[in-house]
Every structure is written in structure tokens, then in C-alpha cells.
């Protein structure tokens, strides 16, 4: 037997959450309050506008795409979709300047389809509570793996980031 793990073994076991320290980051985003059923359409339209504006303004993208969620999810989600950029974007086509907070962040890498993200967020929240960490209202997902129509959803990787307060 080999002692090195295979990729399929890595997929089967989710990694443990961790605390990381981040620097604040300038972002180019599209903001919206969106019904949950309209989330995919919002992401698709936002990424189209972001690509056009970022290319036209010759801005360098420094991160994979992310979705920043404000407050507690309900029937609608208050969110920003975008990228970390090397400088501020000029507002155009609904694309505006945003930011990701710096400081201590609880992070969990989710492997698998987006359908399982809710359970991973719950797991990260429980991990934080077990350690007496207070969660900020805003949190974000970084879509490390860009989804494609023909990919296996088990190959998706999403970083869940939840700032710690206090």
C-alpha cells in the first residue's frame, strides 16, 4: 500500500477550518439584493459586466471570483460579486469599488458541488462557536475552481471566509 493519498481520498474528507490573518483588499464588484432563485442569473450577469469593465479599464485581477454575503440569508441575499483588483475600478455598467476586510478570518475549504455549501457554512459556524469566536455579519466565498459545464462537481473547491470579531 502507498502512503500517499490520492485526489479521490482528498475529496472524501473535508479539511479542518483554520484561522488566518488577511490584509484588506480592494475589489471590483456588482452589488445586489437577489432572491435565492435568481442567484445564478445574478452571478452570470455580474461576471459579464465585470469582465467587460475590468478589460476596458486595463485593471489587473488578483484573485479568483468571490461572493460576499451581507447579513443573515433569508428569502433574498444581499451580496457583492467580484474580484480582488490591483487598483480601484471607475464605476461603470453597475461595477463599483468594494473591499474585503482584513483581520482574523475563520476559513474552511469546501470540496464539492455548490449544493453542499450550506452544510460547510454550518460546520464553520459550529467550529467558531466551539472556540468562543464571534462571527461578523458579512462573510464571503472565494471560488478557487472556476466551474465549467462539463466538469465533475466533486472537483470544485470553494474557500469559505468568515471574519472574527472581538
TrEMBL record:
Pfam families: GyrI-like. Signal peptide: none annotated. Residues 15-165 form the AraC effector-binding domain. This is GyrI-like domain-containing protein. Residues 1-20 are annotated as: Disordered. Residues 1-14 have a biased composition (Low complexity). Gene3D superfamilies: Regulatory factor, effector binding domain (3.20.80.10). InterPro entries: AraC_E-bd (IPR010499), GyrI-like (IPR029442), Reg_factor_effector_dom_sf (IPR011256). SMART domains: AraC_E_bind.
Amino acid at each position: 500500500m502507498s502512503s500517499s493519498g490520492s485526489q479521490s481520498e482528498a475529496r472524501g474528507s473535508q479539511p479542518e477550518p483554520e484561522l488566518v490573518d488577511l490584509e484588506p483588499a480592494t475589489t471590483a464588484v456588482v452589488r445586489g439584493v437577489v432572491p435565492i432563485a435568481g442567484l445564478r442569473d445574478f452571478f452570470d450577469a455580474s461576471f459579464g459586466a465585470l469582465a467587460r469593465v475590468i478589460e476596458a479599464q486595463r485593471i489587473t485581477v488578483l484573485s479568483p471570483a468571490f461572493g460576499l454575503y451581507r447579513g443573515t440569508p433569508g428569502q433574498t441575499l444581499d451580496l457583492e460579486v467580484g474580484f480582488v483588483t490591483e487598483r480601484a475600478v471607475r464605476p461603470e455598467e453597475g461595477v463599483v469599488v468594494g473591499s474585503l476586510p482584513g483581520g482574523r478570518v475563520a476559513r474552511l475549504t469546501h470540496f464539492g458541488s455548490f449544493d453542499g455549501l450550506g452544510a460547510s457554512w454550518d460546520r464553520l459556524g459550529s467550529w467558531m462557536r466551539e472556540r468562543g469566536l464571534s462571527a461578523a455579519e458579512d462573510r464571503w466565498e472565494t471560488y478557487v475552481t472556476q466551474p465549467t459545464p462539463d466538469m465533475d462537481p466533486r472537483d470544485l473547491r470553494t474557500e469559505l471566509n468568515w471574519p472574527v470579531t472581538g
